[in-house]
Design goal:
Layout lengths: L5 E2 L10 H9 L21 H13 L4 E4 L4 H16 L5 E3 L12 H4 L6 E5 L6 H10 L2 E5 L13 E3 L15 H16 L9 H10 L6 H16 L3 H10 L6 H18 L3 H7 L4 H32 L7 E6 L6 H12 L3 E7 L2 E7 L6 H7 L6 E4 L3 E7 L3 H12 L13 E3 L8 H8 L12 E15 L5 E7 L8 E5 L11 E13 L2 E13 L1
Parallel strand pairs: 1-17, 2-3, 2-4, 4-5, 5-6, 7-8, 12-13, 15-17
Antiparallel strand pairs: 8-9, 9-11, 10-11, 13-14, 13-16, 14-15, 16-17
């Protein structure tokens, strides 16, 4: 494999010391971090007080309540928080997470066939469920929709719709996930019923949802994730104890959740049934949670293998000259198309839509890049679709196989008039860091700006035209690469960078230009700075 993967020019990249880096990272935040007590009241969410009263009345009247969630991490987390809350009242709650393969998405006519309730509450879905809402009305079932996805022009006829993206909603921060909407609503239900339930206890699950659903880690999201990770470190919840045991770290970061925990929770809904992940998050004992976590890990391994196979095929089928990559194939695993779309988007540095075809019907997922609003592009060309929904960076679509080519042409035509700058990745290097600055003090500085994620990415640094001293592989199957280099000709000491899951060859000129991030490495009680390669360039 050739080491240089992409061409890029680096002009005027500053050389940073720690003081300059601190100033640079501080500029990402307009104000100081909020305290939990400063999070906007849920009463500002449109229809939330009305919905809370209806739920409280249903509980007081002994009515049957059914919850309908979603099969991704956000939907599973939303459902788990609701299930745990109702257990503590205590009150019986029927919780359903649709199966991706047999039920389809969210509250639907299909799901309603097996629901016999007085009240249905949705979490992380429902904003486009117009037909399901009509059926509920016909059957005399009251429907409360809680969601965070972008509404369409027409809304379902429900008793209440709680969604910060509604034009009628005055909640001051709309970029929150489905689990946050559910958690805020439950805060009002607690008040209506005069309960003593501590809402902070749910922050461990809530932080996982915020991170996994790629919400911007600014404002109230930053506060909730920060506090949630603290709760996760100490929570008596069985699933949290297993997560702590698995990660085996003194401090759990947002990246640990994003790369280690979220994919495992997500894998259940992607390749089998999300109820497995729900059982894990709501397990009564660590023994039960451990067995379920092992199963999730196994499903995640299968997911990775399937995703790798489908991604390799998708790259071959893709037309790299398109503004939006659209690929489709019979037999691709429906549960991994979203991840494959993310891989294609990363590979081509463009938005990508990946479709799995079965019996003439194509279902798929979209992932975006930079500032391209993929939901808007899809909505503009929805005449070719049977269904769609999502938000700026990710969406789901359904259409007849015969319309795929026309949809591909149309969405590319729409994308062709966008500003080219919108397609630029937001993950840009912040500067060049002299080797002498890479130490434990730097780790402490970087740690002070945690949690990292969407809208607060871990800073990327540049190594430019550095002399490679040695390259070697490591790991069980020698599948990772270690590069030892001197960043500047005058450096006395070399530094070491790691590229996981790639075997790199020594370039003929023995030079390297790459971006990398600095992370804390804890091994045998020893803490050190680890340099992880992000991208390798030729300029």
């Amino acid at each position: 494999m050739q080491i240089f993967l992409k061409k890029l020019r680096f002009d005027n990249v500053p050389i940073l010391d720690k003081a300059a880096l601190y100033k640079l990272l501080s500029q990402r935040f307009d104000t100081e971090d909020k305290k939990l007590s400063q999070i906007p009241t849920p009463e500002l969410l449109h229809d939330a007080p009305k919905a809370a009263r209806k739920i409280a009345d249903a509980i007081k009247s002994g009515k049957k309540i059914t919850l309908v969630g979603d099969y991704d991490v956000d939907g599973i987390s939303s459902t788990a928080i609701m299930v745990d809350f109702f257990r503590q009242i205590p009150y019986p709650l029927e919780a359903i997470i649709p199966n991706r393969f047999t039920d389809g998405y969210g509250v639907s006519p299909n799901i309603l066939k097996r629901v016999d309730s007085d009240l249905i509450i949705t979490v992380d879905n429902g904003i486009t469920a117009i037909e399901a809402a009509r059926i509920c009305k016909e059957r005399g079932i009251e429907l409360i929709i809680t969601d965070h996805h972008t509404p369409l022009d027409a809304l379902p006829h429900a008793y209440a719709i709680v969604n910060p993206k509604l034009s009628t909603c005055n909640y001051p921060f709309e970029e929150i996930c489905g689990a946050q909407v559910a958690w805020l609503l439950l805060g009002l239900v607690k008040k209506e019923l005069n309960l003593t339930i501590d809402m902070k206890q749910f922050l461990d699950i809530l932080s996982i949802a915020i991170i996994a659903d790629i919400m911007p880690l600014t404002d109230m999201n930053r506060t909730l994730v920060k506090e949630g990770l603290k709760v996760l470190m100490n929570s008596p919840r069985a699933s949290s104890a297993i997560i702590r045991d698995f990660l085996n770290k003194k401090t759990i970061t947002s990246e640990d959740i994003a790369f280690q925990i979220a994919p495992r929770i997500n894998s259940a809904g992607r390749v089998e049934d999300a109820s497995i992940a729900l059982e894990f998050l709501t397990a009564d004992s660590t023994g039960q949670a451990y067995k379920l976590f092992e199963r999730l890990s196994s499903l995640n391994e299968f997911r990775k293998e399937t995703e790798a196979d489908n991604t390799a095929e998708a790259i071959i089928l893709a037309d790299g000259s398109d503004s939006v990559i659209v690929v489709a194939k019979e037999g691709w695993h429906e549960g991994v198309v979203g991840i494959v779309a993310a891989r294609l988007s990363e590979h081509f540095s463009k938005p990508a839509i990946v479709l799995s075809i079965k019996d003439g019907i194509a279902k798929g997922s979209a992932r975006s890049i930079g500032n391209v609003n993929i939901h808007n592009l899809i909505k503009e060309n929805s005449r070719f679709l049977t269904k769609f929904g999502g938000h700026k960076m990710a969406a789901g679509v359904g259409l007849d196989e015969k319309n795929i080519e026309a949809f591909r042409d149309a969405i590319n035509k729409s994308a062709s008039i966008l500003n080219p700058d919108d397609f630029k990745s937001l993950d840009e290097v912040v500067g060049i860091l002299p080797s002498s600055e890479i130490d434990l003090e730097l780790l402490n500085l970087l740690e002070s700006f945690e949690p990292y994620g969407e809208a607060n990415s871990r800073p990327l640094f540049l190594i430019k035209d550095a002399e490679i001293v040695d390259m070697k592989t490591f790991g069980k199957e020698s599948s990772h690469s270690k590069i030892i280099l001197k960043q500047f000709a005058y450096d006395k000491n070399s530094i070491e960078l790691i590229q996981f899951k790639k075997v790199l060859d020594m370039p003929s000129e023995k030079k390297l230009t790459c971006s990398y991030r600095v992370v804390k490495n804890e091994f045998n009680s020893r803490v050190s700075a680890q340099l992880i390669i992000n991208k390798i360039y030729n300029y």
